[in-house]
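Request: Could I get any protein with tokenized structure?
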Amino acid sequence: MEIKIPKINIKYNRLIDPIFIFYCQNNPELKKRGWNDWLPPTKEKILKRVEGYKKEWGKYEKKILTGIIQVLGLDFKDQIIDVHIVSGNPRQMSNPLIIKSGFSPAEFVNSLTHELIHRLFVINELTKIDGQLDDFIHSISKNESDTTKSHIMVSAVLKYIYLDVLNEPFRLELNLLSSQKHSTDEYLRAWNIVEKLGYQKIISDFRDVLKTAKTALENRDVK
């Protein structure tokens, strides 16, 4: 069966960019986190970065999207996914998909892969059936924050993509370094859980949960 992968449309969003620039420069909490001296790039620079992101992502798009779909057994519902690039953003977003322009091309590929995995979980009805996914995540991280819990599956799939699909372990190192530098340890805690339990075991158990959810959905449709 042919796997249908969405087209990823990476573009600079000039309409929402001023909103993010204002937020990054004026939010008191961000100033405490090192954004006080941040200056947005020029339009020429951001457009050049976007072209670099497109070129770099193009090398990996089919492998990454196919890998995510195959390993999770989930499908993207969108035929086209718009990726909006803005000058700055303290936290990247999956729906709508918004990413800052401050990443290197390699970091951008990591960040986009991260957000696409989030998006796949959010839009797929199988992940919401009777709270089974939430129960599964809670069972392996019951004392963790919501942020940590929401990144366990993402981290497990990222590790699979980096090591088993792309065979580029440096991407895992980049991701871990970024988590270590983050203002909170919640992302690193998710990585530690993945390391402790094993990314392949977490993914395998998750797929078992999805099978149960699919059966419940099919039975519900019959009724």
